[in-house]
Each structure stands twice: as structure tokens, then as C-alpha cells.
Design brief:
The exocyst complex is composed of EXOC1, EXOC2, EXOC3, EXOC4, EXOC5, EXOC6, EXOC7 and EXOC8. Interacts with EXOC3L1. Interacts with BIRC6/bruce. Interacts with MYRIP. Interacts with SLC6A9. This is Exocyst complex component 3. Its main location: other. By secondary structure, the protein is mainly alpha-helical. The chain has four domains: about 210 residues, no CATH class; about 120 residues, no CATH class; about 160 residues, Tetracycline Repressor, domain 2, CATH 1.10.357.50; about 180 residues, Exocyst complex component Sec6, C-terminal domain (Tetracycline Repressor, domain 2, Orthogonal Bundle), CATH 1.10.357.70. It is built from 25 helices and no strands. The longest helix has about 70 residues. The protein is elongated, with a radius of gyration of 63 Å. The C terminus is likely disordered.
């Protein structure tokens, strides 16, 4: 058993301890001492055990007595519950009889409310009067407070009536009619509020508290609206005139005000003012910017944040502007008006002068604003602009040319530029017009600018063709009567110089307005224009030379005649006349003037040789031949001197031309006829375009060659080699030899 087990464990432990104490022999002496100590320990342990058991027994005794008391308490409670149950069953009937009392209480509270309401009901007319006066005096908050009280009385009465008898419309109408004036008060007050709202941007500067009061009234009404709608959900009842939705009305009023503000800025019409649209747009810009700045800095503080008043207004302005711009775009606009409108819509609107104003950021972000007019409408306007501009440019160019032509017949010389070259105003007028249109187009965008430039150059191209035709007509008219126009030469020079100015202007216009990557698209039309201008200049120059040679004609006719041989001064006169003309030709610009000098030189030589080939003289003897040849050499020298002087500074080597006259003179001068073939063959090898008829004519002028001799020389020449100067430009091919000897009559 457990007891025995314990005893065994105790004995084993004791044995161990005794064994531990008696390890050495000398410890046996202390056995008695050990025994006493162990006896003391044992007595102490037993005492502690007794005490513990005693306290346990006391606890058990107390617990038992408490359990006994609890049992008797439970018995008492059980008895009480039986009694209560008996009483309750008896009193159920009594409670049934109290229903009348409850009804009386309800009625009492209703009557109390009615009595309370009576005070209000009787004072309704007076409160209506007071409220009306407050509205008149502009004390809107107090007026609204009273209006709310009146509405509250009416609504409570109606609600009570509805609860008691929701089908009784007669009583409902009675209440409604009795409070009828109150509805008018509400409308009067609203009218005052909307007036303040309409003028809010002005009011906020002068009297912000008034605006704040209006916003507070609207907020109160919104609260009542919400309460009434909640009650309707629960009970189905809502008073007449609810919800008032004054906040929504306020935003509608603001929207109308903004629209009117923008529409009302058009002060003028096209009839009264050419600049009507520019003005209209500028006023809009100023108003909108001012309004939005006020809205941001002042108005925002008068409204609760959830109204988001600034953004709502911003939206309204944007919408109103979009509507206005679409209306304007739909009108029949002129070209300059289209530009004004598009510049404003595409650039001004988002610029720092308006929506991009630094004071409006960060609330206004120009990148997130929608376009005021659609791309489609923009494209329509641009194409209308381009077609109007096209017809305008055609008209302007035609007019410019007509004006220029009127100058051509003036009796005063054209103006000269700062370097003394004659010119007319035509190139300046044309390019100034192009520049203006390009600057205007650049305001809209790069793409339009390029289109306008291409248009200008296309029109320029066809204009130059007309210019060429007009110059031709000018020349033809002059030839009918050379006395008229008086300053023909000077104006023809101006026309030639204009060609150079046009060339330079086209280049500078392209450089200024054309992106380099677009260069290729215009190179063909540019080449065409340059070619046309060169033709005009060339034809102009040749018509001026015709002018010179018409004056030289009588003197050229004198060459190689008897009179000439006798000592006429024809060549002297020719030189003076040419020099005189070239004083005017000095007003021709460099590249053309150089060509002109060369051409004059060449033509003088051609005409001189032609005079020889006309066989107007046939020398009688060696003496005459010598005299004639020396005169020819002397005259060649005069020409050489003249043209050297005219070509001064241009570095042209035109020596070779006069050499031909000298070479012919040498053939005529030759005294030994046996050397004639040699001399002629030298001439032919230098100038291989000399034909047989030229040689025949030359030998005829020489006067001493027989028909056979001519025949022999000509036949032998055909086999000879030619060694012309590589720079030689054929000159004989344009000289014809008359077959009949008519010139003999002229001697």
C-alpha cells in the first residue's frame, strides 16, 4: 500500500543519512549529539503538521455553516416568487382598463402642440409683414430666419394633418391657403439672392459679407431640403415647394451671368468699325482674366470648399467662350478676321495674357483645357482663309502691276536706289505685301506660314509671266512711236533692275520664312521664276540695244560708201551716240550691264562687217584700197577705245572683236595680188564661219579680183585647215550678203 511504500522510502533515506554521518571512526563519539539534534528536528516538524490540520478543520466548519444559511435563503425566495406570480395574474384585467388614460395623454400632447401652434398661427400675418420689411431693408439673414419659422409652423401643421388623415385634402388646402403669402416671401427673398449672385464678382469686392450671407441662406435651405427628402422616404409626406434646390439655381444663374458677360462685350459691328473683332476679343480677354483673378483671390473664400466655386466658374467661362467662338467662326468672316479669331483661339487663350497667367496657376492648367473650337472648324476656317487670301493676292498683284505701268509713261525719270540704279516701287510693294501676310500667318502656326509662303511664290510665278508680257507690250507700243513714252529707256532700265531685285527678294523671303527641310518643294518654282526674270531682263536689254541701233542706222548706212571714203564722221557719231546711251545704261545693275556692254560691242562690230559685205563700194585702185583699209583700222581702234572705256572695271577681254575688222582691212590693203590667197586663207582659218559669199563680197569690195580669180581662191580655200581661237564666238553666220547689187544705187 501507499503507506508501506512511504515507510520504506523513509527508512531508506534514514539509512543513507546515518551512513553519511558515520563515515569516520571519530564520528562514533558524536552519536549521542546526533541523536539529540534529530529528535529536536522531528519534534518541530510534528508541531507544524498539527497546526496545519487544525486550521483546515476550522475552514471546513465555517463552510458548512454558510451552506446551511444559503439553503434557507433559497427557500424564502421561492416562496416570494410564488406570491408575485399570484399577484400578477390578478392585475392583468386592471391594465386593460388604462387604455383610455393613454389616449387622453396623446390627445393632451396634441392639444398642447395646437395651443403652441395657435400662437404662431395667429401671428402669421404679422411675421409675414416683418419678414417683408426685412427683405426690403436687405437684412436677408434675419428675413430668412423668420421665413424658416413660418415654414416650420406650416410644415408641422400639415404633417400632423397628414398623419391624422392623409386623404383629407380640404384641410390640407386650408392650411396651404392660410400660409399663402409665405410662398411669395420665399420668392421675394430668392429674387434678392439671385441679384447678389448675378453681381457676385462686383459684390465680393465691395461687400463680401453680403455674399457670405447669401451663401449661408442657400446652405440652410439645402439642409432643410435634405431633411424633408429623408422624411418623405420614411413617411411619404413632403411640404409644397420642396425641394427648393437653391444651390442648383444659384449655379444656373452664375452660368447665365457668365454667358451674358461674354456676349455683351461686342460693342461694334463690321459696318461701324473695321477692327470690331479684334476689339471684341481683346475685351473678352481682359474681362475673363479679371473675373477669374477675382474669383480665385476673393470669391473662393466666400463659399464652402465643397462648392468648388473657382473650378465651376472656370468651367462656365470655358463653355461660354467655346459657344461664343463657335458663333463667331460660323459668321462670314473676312481673311484678316479669320486670322484674328484663330490667333486668339489657338494662342492668346492659353498664353500668359489669359489662361496661362501666372496668378491663375496652379488651379488653371492650360494643357488640360479643351479646345475652344474643334480641329474640323479650324481647318474649315484655314481653308477659307487660304482661298480668300489667294484671290486677294491675285488682286493685289494685278493692281500693283497696273500702278507700275502707269509710272512707265510718266514724263519724269524713275527713282534711283542708293547706288544710283533706276528702279520702280513694284518689287518693294509686292514683297511688303508678302511679308505682311507671312507675319500674320506665323502668328497662327508654322504650318500655315509655310502654306502662305508657297502660295505667295506660286502667285509670284504667274505674276512674272504677266510682267514679261507687259514689258513686251511696252516695247511694242514704243516702236509704233519712238517719241513716246518720253522716258522709255529709263523705265526699261528700271524694269531690268527690278528683275535683279525680285531675284534677291525671293531668296531673302525663302531664307526668312522657309524651314530648310522644305527647300526642295520650292526649288522648281524658284528655278522657273529665275528663268522668267532672266528672260525679262534679257529682252529688256536687247530692246534697249535696238533703241541704240535704230539711232545709229543712218550713220551705219554711211559706212563703206564714197562719202565715207571722202572722210565722213559716221564712226565718230556712232561712238558718241553709243557713249551717250551708255551714260543711261550705267543705271543698269551689274550683271545685266556687263552683258549689255558685251552685246553692244559685238553688235557694233557685226554692223560694221555687215556694211562691208553690202558691197556699197568697190575700190578703184591700190591708193583707194590703202586709204580705205587705213580708215577701217583707225575706226577699229576707235571702237576698241570706246568699249574699253565702257567695260572699265568689268575685266572683260573684248579685244578680239575689233581684230576681225583689222584682219579684213589687211585683206583689202594687200598690194601684191599673188599673196591674196594666203591672206584670205589666214582670215578663214581664224574665223571658220566665213562663208564663200562673204569672201566673194570681200573680193568685190577690193575691186581688183577677176571672176576666175575669185572662183579659184574660193575653191582652194575649202581644202584648207582651220585654227580658230578657242574663245571665238561665230560672228559671220548672222551676216547675210545681198545677191543683187542694189547698194550701187546708194553711192
Amino acid at each position: 500500500s501507499a503507506m508501506e511504500e512511504t515507510d520504506r522510502e523513509a527508512v531508506a533515506t534514514a539509512v543513507q543519512r546515518v551512513a553519511g554521518m558515520l563515515q569516520r571512526p571519530d564520528q562514533l563519539d558524536k552519536v549521542e549529539q546526533y541523536r539529540r539534534r534529530e529528535a529536536r528536528k522531528k519534534a518541530s516538524v510534528e508541531a507544524r503538521l498539527k497546526a496545519a490540520i487544525q486550521s483546515q478543520l476550522d475552514g471546513v466548519r465555517t463552510g458548512l455553516s454558510q451552506l446551511h444559511n444559503a439553503l434557507s435563503d433559497v427557500k424564502d425566495i421561492q416562496q416570494s416568487l410564488i406570491d408575485v406570480n399570484k399577484d400578477w395574474r390578478q392585475s392583468i384585467n386592471t391594465i386593460e382598463n388604462l387604455k383610455d388614460v393613454k389616449d387622453a395623454v396623446v390627445q393632451h400632447s396634441q392639444l398642447a402642440a395646437a395651443v403652441e401652434n395657435l400662437k404662431n398661427i395667429f401671428s402669421v400675418p404679422e411675421i409675414v409683414r416683418e419678414t417683408h420689411d426685412l427683405i426690403e431693408r436687405g437684412e436677408l439673414l434675419q428675413a430668412h430666419r423668420k421665413l424658416m419659422d413660418l415654414e416650420c409652423s406650416r410644415d408641422n401643421l400639415m404633417y400632423e394633418q397628414y398623419r391624422m388623415d392623409s386623404k383629407n385634402t380640404h384641410d390640407m388646402n386650408l392650411i396651404h391657403t392660410y400660409f399663402g403669402d409665405m410662398q411669395k416671401l420665399s420668392e421675394e427673398l430668392a429674387k434678392q439672392l439671385w441679384m447678389v449672385v448675378q453681381r457676385s464678382l462686383v459684390t465680393v469686392r465691395r461687400d463680401p459679407t453680403l455674399l457670405v450671407s447669401v451663401v449661408r441662406i442657400i446652405e440652410r435651405e439645402e439642409k432643410i431640403d435634405r431633411r424633408m427628402l429623408d422624411r418623405k422616404k420614411q413617411t411619404g409626406f413632403i411640404p409644397p415647394g420642396r425641394p427648393k434646390m437653391w444651390k442648383e439655381k444659384m449655379f444656373n444663374i452664375l452660368e447665365r451671368t457668365v454667358s451674358t458677360r461674354i456676349e455683351g462685350t461686342q460693342a461694334d459691328t463690321r459696318e461701324s468699325d473695321k477692327m470690331w473683332l479684334v476689339r471684341h476679343l481683346e475685351i473678352i480677354r481682359k474681362y475673363v482674366l479679371d473675373d477669374l483673378l477675382v474669383a480665385k483671390t476673393l470669391l473662393d473664400q466666400c463659399f464652402p470648399p465643397h462648392y468648388d466655386i473657382f473650378n465651376r466658374l472656370l468651367n462656365m467661362y470655358h463653355q461660354a467662350l467655346a459657344t461664343r467662338m463657335q458663333e463667331l467662326a460660323a459668321e462670314d468672316l473676312e481673311a484678316n478676321e479669320i486670322v484674328s479669331l484663330l490667333t486668339w483661339v489657338l494662342n492668346t487663350y492659353t498664353s500668359a495674357e489669359m489662361m496661362g497667367n501666372s496668378e491663375l496657376s496652379p488651379e488653371v492648367d492650360v494643357n488640360s483645357l479643351d479646345a475652344l473650337i474643334s480641329q474640323n472648324v479650324v481647318d474649315q476656317l484655314l481653308s477659307k482663309y487660304m482661298s480668300t487670301l489667294t484671290s486677294n493676292i491675285i488682286g493685289w498683284l494685278r493692281k500693283a502691276l497696273e500702278t507700275d505701268k502707269k509710272d512707265w509713261i510718266k514724263e519724269t525719270e524713275p527713282e534711283a536706289d542708293q547706288d544710283g540704279y533706276y528702279q520702280t516701287t513694284l518689287p518693294a510693294i509686292v514683297f511688303q505685301m508678302f511679308e505682311q501676310n507671312l507675319q500674320v500667318a506665323a502668328q497662327i502656326n508654322e504650318d500655315l506660314k509655310t502654306k502662305v509662303l508657297i502660295l505667295c511664290l506660286q502667285q509670284m510665278n504667274s505674276f512674272l509671266t504677266r510682267y514679261k508680257d507687259e514689258a513686251q507690250l511696252y516695247k511694242e507700243d514704243h516702236l509704233k512711236n519712238r517719241q513716246y513714252p518720253q522716258c522709255y529707256v529709263q523705265y526699261m532700265i528700271a524694269v531690268i533692275n527690278n528683275c535683279q531685285t525680285f531675284k534677291e527678294s525671293i531668296i531673302s523671303l525663302k531664307r526668312k520664312y522657309l524651314k530648310s527641310d522644305m527647300e526642295d518643294t520650292l526649288s522648281i518654282s524658284h528655278a522657273n521664276m529665275d528663268a522668267t526674270l532672266d528672260i525679262i531682263a534679257k529682252e529688256g536689254c536687247s530692246s534697249l540695244l535696238d533703241e541704240v541701233f535704230m539711232d545709229l542706222e543712218p550713220h551705219l548706212n554711211e559706212l563703206m560708201t564714197k562719202k565715207w571714203l571722202m572722210g565722213s564722221n559716221a564712226v565718230g557719231t556712232i561712238c558718241v551716240t553709243v557713249e551717250d546711251y551708255f551714260n543711261d545704261f550705267a543705271k543698269i545693275k551689274k550683271p545685266y550691264k556687263k552683258t549689255m556692254t558685251l552685246e553692244a560691242h559685238r553688235r557694233v562690230v557685226v554692223e560694221y562687217i555687215r556694211a562691208i559685205m553690202l558691197k556699197r563700194i568697190s575700190f578703184k585702185n591700190a591708193e583707194e584700197r590703202k586709204e580705205g583699209a587705213e580708215r577701217m583700222i583707225k575706226e577699229a581702234e576707235q571702237f576698241r577705245f570706246l568699249f574699253k572705256k565702257l567695260a572699265a572695271g568689268s575685266g572683260e577681254d573684248t579685244e578680239g572683236l575689233c581684230d576681225i575688222i583689222e584682219a579684213i582691212a589687211e585683206v583689202i590693203k594687200l598690194t601684191d595680188p599673188s599673196l591674196l590667197y594666203l591672206e584670205v586663207s589666214t582670215l578663214v582659218s581664224k574665223y571658220p564661219d566665213i562663208r564663200d559669199d562673204h569672201i566673194a563680197a570681200l573680193l568685190t569690195v577690193r575691186g581688183d579680183a577677176s571672176r576666175d580669180m575669185k572662183q579659184t581662191i574660193i575653191e582652194t580655200l575649202d581644202q584648207g585647215p582651220s585654227q580658230p581661237n578657242p574663245n571665238y564666238v561665230p560672228i559671220f553666220k548672222e551676216i547675210t550678203v545681198p545677191t543683187l547689187t542694189v547698194p550701187k544705187l546708194l553711192k
